[in-house]
Amino acid sequence: MRFEIARASGPFELCHCTRCRKASGTAFVSGIRVLSSDFRLLSGGELIASYEAPILERPPAYHTHFCTRCGSPVPKPPDAAESFEIAAGVLDDDPGARPDRHIYVECNADWLEITDALPQLDKTSLERLRRGEDANA
């Protein structure tokens, strides 16, 4: 599967939620937001498979997309979405952005100590931020 992005719009978040940890098999997913208009699928769209996890709290459901040939996580823009998230680790080149924050830190793996200076947001702080409120309030 091959794709290209014109640019990363951000945010660039390191997600520690349980579902991201399980889907990736790592301590967190490095997710970078991309505008759908800046994404172009070059080849291999037929190799993309999807998994939709059950809804835990409210829609939308948690989706993961992967290559049926190699198992790598791959981007698949949702229909009519203005933007979507790409796992930064699948990019071949520097996206020109750096991580903005850790999110869902209350789910952080017990064996991982976050030692960088990035902001650490729990679910409540993240929801405030996304509503345009002060995340620290």
What is the element layout, followed by pairings?
Elements: E1 2-5, E2 12-15, H1 18-24, E3 29-35, E4 39-43, E5 48-52, E6 63-67, E7 83-87, E8 101-103, E9 120-121, H2 123-130
Parallel strand pairs: 2-8, 8-9
Antiparallel strand pairs: 1-4, 2-3, 3-7, 5-6
CATH level-3 fold name:
glutathione-dependent formaldehyde- activating enzyme (gfa)
Structural class per helix/strand content? mainly beta
Order of helices and strands: EEHEEEEEEEH
Total number of helices: 2
Q: Low-confidence parts, pLDDT < 50 over ≥5 residues?
A: none
Largest sheet: 5 strands, mixed
Assembly state of the chains shown: single chain
CATH class: Alpha Beta
Report the average pLDDT across residues.
Answer: 90
Structure description:
This protein has 137 residues and is mainly beta. It has one domain: glutathione-dependent formaldehyde- activating enzyme (gfa) (Alpha-Beta Complex). The protein has helices spanning 18-24, 123-130; strands spanning 2-5, 12-15, 29-35, 39-43, 48-52, 63-67, 83-87, 101-103, 120-121. The strands form 3 sheets. Strands 7-3-2-8-9 form a 5-stranded mixed beta sheet. Strands 1-4 form a two-stranded antiparallel ribbon. A two-stranded antiparallel ribbon has the order 5-6. It is globular and about 40 Å long. The termini are far apart.
Concise structural overview:
11% of the residues lie in helices and 29% in strands. With 137 residues, the protein is mostly beta strands. The model has no long low-confidence stretch (mean pLDDT 90).
